[in-house]
Write a structure and sequence with these properties.
The chain has one domain. It contains five helices and no strands. The chain is elongated and about 50 Å long.
Length: 165
Amino acid sequence: MKLSSKQPTYASMRLIAAAALAATLTFAPGAVFAATPASASGTVHAASETHQDRTEQRIANMHAKLKITAAQEDQWAKVAQIMRENAKTMDTLIQARDDHAKDMTAVDNLKSYGDITDAHADGIKKLTPAFAALYSSMSDSQKKDADTLFRHRDHKRGHKMSKAK
């Protein structure tokens, strides 16, 4: 069968898949990986701070910046609980990745990245309705603070990433 110039080749599909994976890992909200699977010497090392540790800091920081009221505490507790569950899931997947880093094939590596990015996306999907309920109860001032907090968080992350390159 003759391929037309508009028909994707195996190589072009691999390039597209690699670009999509790179974009997902680069632009996903929140840190996707808590540890580098291998250092330059090839040894595996764990991060000193887990997603769960950073999540507790983020929960306290967001609570303060959003000026959560006593009336909003129940809704906030639901948001915080989902954040904790998401962090635990991410830590479990990252630990499994770290534990098997030396023995992973390239395909295993891609599957591991996929599992982590899927879990991250699932976590965002769980968090969104809980946060939306909280957001709807917020004053205009709180909503403005939330909008700014989320907007600046993405901006700062992109800035840190560009410096790291």
